[in-house]
Amino acid sequence: MPVKISSNSVVIENELFRRELAVDAGGLRTVSIFNKKSGREYVKRPDAAEFQLTLNATVIVSYSKPEVHELDGNMRDDGRLLKLENIDTKTSPSGSEIVKVSFLCPSFSAKIKACYEIYPDLPGCSKWLEVESLDKELRLHKVFFELLNACPGEFADAVFMKHGLVKAQPNFAANGDEDIVQVHNAVLNEGLFIGNGAPGILRYYMVYPHWPTGISCGYNMSSADFSKFLKKGEAFTTDKAYICLYEGNVSNTAGANIFREMIRRELPECKNNDGVMYCTWLPFLKNINEALLMELVERASAMGFRWFVVDDGWFTDNNWEMDSSKFPNGLKPIADKVHQSGMKFGLWLNIGSDYGQIGSRPEDNILDYHGSPKAFGFGAGKTTTRCFATEHRDIMAEKLISLAKEYGVDYFKLDFSNICSPYGIMSYGCTSREHKHHRDFSDSVTEQYLSMMQMRNAVKTQFTDLVIDFSFEAFGMEFPSIGALRYSELHHSSNMSTMKPETLKADKIRETLYQYCNLLPNERILGSLICLQNNRDVEHVLTAMVGTPLVAGDLRKISPDTVAQIKNISSTLKNLINENPLSEFQLLATGQKWDGYARYQKNGNGIICIFRNSFKEETVNISLDEIPAGTYVLRDILSDTDIAKYSGEEFRNGIKFKFSSASSCMALVFRKLK
């Protein structure tokens, strides 16, 4: 059994991982995190609290004993304000086991549940809190839903990595809004990932191993302070923390893929991510019309693309009225042609400002620190930002539902910042005291993110297969995160493009995409707006394929030979994904003169893409560390010819590949023989 309960302990375990909780007079705490593969214990302080939160102005901790704190030298004793009520377990429809340890807090007439979930095949667990006000209003704030004083070996031998990429200082190693913290011991060659599922600027870590709490994962307590007012009888469920153990070096493929799978199981189902997405934004901007889009649909279809997205430029400022000068027949002919061509129809809409209905409903505008409507961007023009925690959320949900019904929309790209800006040009929150769904500034950021989810759920209730994408601007962050992926089936993560190659080229875009996809599920990330303009177009498509490929550009400029090659790439990708998801990812090289990656199914079928850049030699050595055993047929996608057969062992040991003298990149598909 994955969960074992006795009179004073709860054990959550599978064949790979064990977490033991002590439940006694002192409260609740983790006394063991055990890596069953290495036989190593991780917990350093079995007397540390399990969670911490504040109700009104009183700190509540899950476990307390008198102790002099190193921060200020004062004796700390938070007291015992919790009383164990019960422990419940259940099996979820996905096969995981969930245990909830429930406490009553009589001083505040509240109920607090510490909740854990474990899968039979993953070396870790997720955790969250459920807080309920029983008979009076409470303010919930200063929340750490996970506290861990744990690492492999000793903290002195550990390194801390932010998102598995950037080495941090050991003290206050992640004092900020990091998404994923990695703790690695190079001596023992093992470590753990800790992920924070909170959205955007609400997420927060505090890492200070000298303190009993050690690694603290929760909500922002400063610039965008988390706050939730609970009415009588109202309950709030926090976001989750994710713990995943691994063995191997700090950047090992297996560990990253296991953590990626843990996060994938938390994301909304996405059945439709099986091909290339085209977006009209570049180079056309708002200069689009029916004739142009009809031609672009034909070009996209000829290259085997799966999605066609109409970006900004289709409506006027009269309550999103169709621009009849550009689209005299509306968007229906475009949507129909997209669907008849076998593609999915996508549509852009701003949700963060009053653009499209400027001046309407001033009562929904965000108010800044001075009580004035918060301008959109740098404040030029008349556009103001909307607060999601108003009736704006319901109006936008109704608009999206109406558009989905009218045009058969398969994908919405939802854009424009209001909570915060990825460009750092917008203050946080809303100071209004009149808005329907938040009280004042203190809870405005919290309630706006909750309102985004409410808007999403309202639309998904009617259109279950519709793909919703809160873009990086709508989410307000410049780097994709667990939280962003939890809000969207697909997440448009940046506007990086090759429109001006003197400013940005594909190799630099790949470097960023490798960071985006280092630990997150690649197939949920739309990484850039890389352009197809009859200049290195094959390289650009392969670059976009680090995630779900998103491309832009004037498709009319692409040569017939390149169209044929791109069609081969699109068809190969679509066929692979239709069989099984390309869930496994390996970075083959980066920071060298050449770079590349592999994406493949758990059964072994997949693709390899490598890029020559300034590499002068003809051959590169490629090894796939975790490819399953078997015999594989390797095929060149661009020339559509078989190359050779290799065993899984040969792939793991390394195979030499030779660049064509005329090519800047290679695209290979490998399939396991049955």
Q: Could you characterize what this model shows?
A:
The protein has 674 residues and is of the alpha+beta class. The protein folds into 3 domains: 3-264, Beta-galactosidase, Chain A, domain 5 (Distorted Sandwich), CATH 2.70.98.60; 277-358 and 389-424 and 444-578, Aldolase class I (TIM Barrel); 584-672, Immunoglobulin-like. The strands form 8 sheets. Strands 10, 11, 12, 13, 15, 16, 17, 18, 22 and 23 form a 10-stranded antiparallel beta sheet that branches. It has a 7-stranded parallel beta sheet with strand order 28-27-26-25-24-32-31. Helix 10 (537-544) runs parallel beside helix 11. 50% of the residues are buried.
Largest sheet: 10 strands, antiparallel
Low-confidence stretches: none
- Name the overall outline: globular
Helix content: 10-25%
Task: Specify the number of helices.
Answer: 12
User: How far do the termini sit from each other?
Assistant: 35 Å
* Mean pLDDT metric: 94
Going by helix content, strand content and strand pairing, the class is: alpha+beta
